[in-house]
User: Fold these one by one.
Assistant:
Number 1:
Amino acid sequence: MSLVNQSEQWKTLESLAGGIAGQHMRDWFDADQSRAAKYSVEGCGIKLDYSKNLINQEILTALFDLAQSQQVAQKRDAMFAGEIVNHTEKRAVLHTALRNFSGEPVLVDGKDVMPEVLATQDKIKDFVHSIHSGEHVGYTGKAIKHIVAIGIGGSFLGPKIMSEALKPYWHKGITVHYVANVDGCHIQDVLANLDHTDTLIVMSSKSFTTQETLQNTLTAKQWFLDQGGSQSDIAKHFVAVSSNVKAAVEFGMDENNIFPMWDWVGGRYSLWSAIGLPIALTIGYQNYRELLEGAYAMDCHFKEAPPEQNLPMLLGLLGVWYTNFHAAQSHVLLPYYHYLRGFPAYVQQLDMESNGKGVAGLNEEVDYATGPVIWGSEGTNGQHSFHQLIHQGKVLIPADFMFPLNVHNQEDTHHAMLASNCFGQTQALMQGKTYQECYADLEGSNLDEETRKSLATHKTMPGNKPSNTMLFDQLDPKTLGALVCMYEHKVFVQGAIWGVNSFDQWGVELGKVLGNQVLDKLVDTDAQLDFDSSTNQLIAAFRAANK
Ligand code: F6P
């Protein structure tokens, strides 16, 4: 296999990138009044305006050629068909089966997985109903009011951030608390304010081996017993989600309280599986199902829409354009919607854990970047802190702006102000402000000539900074499902082009192994320290402070 950067299509893009150096998007907008209409597409309730990007028709065509040369469509079809695309772990990658409403079977090793998927959805539905209706009560007979969802990584970020994003849909009377960090402050803070008789613990761990989640669950169990619950009451207050049912039972979970998932669901793609149980408990099963339906609609769009109208394809290719042909090292996500404030952190795991790899194909070390640092936070807060670097700093940071055209129960003045900030930022990034414009602003002032020139230089905004703007009507469950799925497939497109395995995470695994080795030395204080001198010194400091 030859690496993508050896391809003709890559070389064409390199020369096209050189060709637009020195040109300005402002001039492109001036020269072509139809630019916005030309570079806008809509799908599954999401309107994407990508006209404020450093592209023209020739560049787009070359990007589509690159995708074709790397067989993105064939790789996509292989994933949807249940082929072993995660070759280092010998697994199919089928989060798409979890939201497959086509009625068609999905085969893994010749076996249709859909009956199990549908049975688990029914189990979630029944359980959510029993909690919300008061049929399932705590051991003293009280209705469940609090859910403590324990998990980490994909077993935490998806449920937490989707629940947060769908606040207007929360079921009355239920409050969900999420705990991920093994730092005891977190779980202690959460449990301190709860009554164990109306609390349900949902422990989510695909592997059922993750240190943080096991420890936090043990702490929650001890708290439950210390508060007066007994061993036999645990079944009413603890449920688990895992693909490792055996380990969950050994841990003490009641077998009936275990919601299954499968090894063909990657952790960061798992919110569509029973890992989404806390979401369903928060917003009700019907809304949860609509979240899945939105993702299914985007799956269909990704499979069927031609490249020039295909949202994940366009976003993925634009990402490659900036990462590999403009040396952009980061990508910022800017949701202008308070409830979507966690979304950058969600995409951060999705993107960086998927494509942060250095080997393509079976064993070819790559010599090109495979993904930017993903970061961001809600607008307008960022405007008063880090936007400065995006506007005038010397690093190129492409941005994704997101904005709901309608919001639930919000007063118009705030919403219009939020919109004006969002749209105004995309405009400022694109057009900037020239030295002449800045100088002209100062002409009536009583500053001397030298000061005017100096100030105008400092105030000059280069512009030409790329951004996408995504608008949607209201952030309802369906639209959110489509939005999340759009980013999943964007990441897929990029992984397919770079030739990496987007579905393993060996770097994370090494951290887990070394962390456990260090823990052994912290617990056994007599054990000889035989790591590198820095790690030994850190362990010694901990031992000394915890004698
Ligand atoms: O952070 C690495 C990771 O493997 C993620 O991919 C996963 O979502 C997380 O750990 C938690 O794993 P588990 O669900 O097995 O506890």
Note: The longest strand covers residues 199-204.
Number 2:
Amino acid sequence: MRNDAPNIPTSIRPTLLVHGGAWAIPPEMAEDHQRGVAHALEVGYAILSEGGTATDAVEAAVTILEDDPTFDAGRGSFLTSEGKVQLDALLMDGATLRAGGVACVEHLRNPIQAARLVLDKSPHIYFVGQGAEAFAARHGMKLIDNSELVLDRERIRLKEAQERLAAGQPDQTFSGPLAQDDKSPETAAQHRAEELASKVGLGFSPGIEEFDSTWALAPEVGLSSEEQPAPADPKFESHDTVGAVALDQYGNLAAGTSTGGTLNKAPGRVGDSSLIGCGCYADNHSAAVSLTGWGEPIMKLVLGKWATDRVSQGVTPELAAQQAISYLFARLGGHGGIILLGPDGQFGIAHNTPGMAWGIANKTGHRTGLSI
Ligand code: ASP
């Protein structure tokens, strides 16, 4: 876990942060990731600069990332074990606490736009599958064939992952050599507890009175050895979700997260990304957050809300972001990344994966990177 992002003075508006997923970005995809987050920043920040709302800017930035086949969102997403794209997204408005989420949609090019429709036009917060698609279609969104979202690159990737799984080999397509893959459970288990304790610190987490080193060694606390996910499961090694958080000139926050989920996921599986308080949350009284990474541990810790609560308790977003990722690892051996933005423009970016494409735009300029 690293976090030394240059922070900015308080009370600077507007601000936009984006991410393109926390994982081991292969060198040949590095440029596309950097270009993609820069494009999303440019479009989203232009909206904020012209007086647009944080919600509009987040929706626009995430739409750009969904449309970019580089990322695991929208077209070009990872495929389910049955070879389909199945998408989840959430958008949340920190001024009103209104939120809109969709999950397991297969016929929408931009699920974040469907999430916006839910936010704006429904008394409900969350729709799944056909109900989500029918709602979106009723409000003017075009339904497309799932094959329009599927790239040959992903068909090959899925086939290779399934072959490796059948052969009992870990999928390294996205993780690089395991020794460098800080998010694989087996590598996580090699970390020394003392190192973790020094990163995590003591006493910050609601559930941890004292750091328990055994937790750091158990990818899934509470599961028997038979129930532990197989180390070769590709879901540990492919994270490329997208997200954005924004603060507009009116002082309102918003957050959005969109994903194709994890490679070779079971059809119907929903991760953290689109679940309110897990992979995404926004509240003007605390902060806006978007997470990426191994979804199941993030869900168990309701990590987005955990991080924003810390900001409302007076922790800086920079520190709260680091603490959230440390907590994720210390408690469940989880790996991922976070962008966190407070109502005063202070922000935090952290990840414990080898890479995470990120970008920030505010009055001091636009900056992007592939790791922190
Ligand atoms: N968190 C996402 C999920 O578990 C994956 C990711 O962030 O790449 O579905």
Note: The pocket of aspartic acid is lined by residues 21, 72, 239-241, 259, 261-262, 271-273, 279, 292-293, 295 (CB under 6 Å).
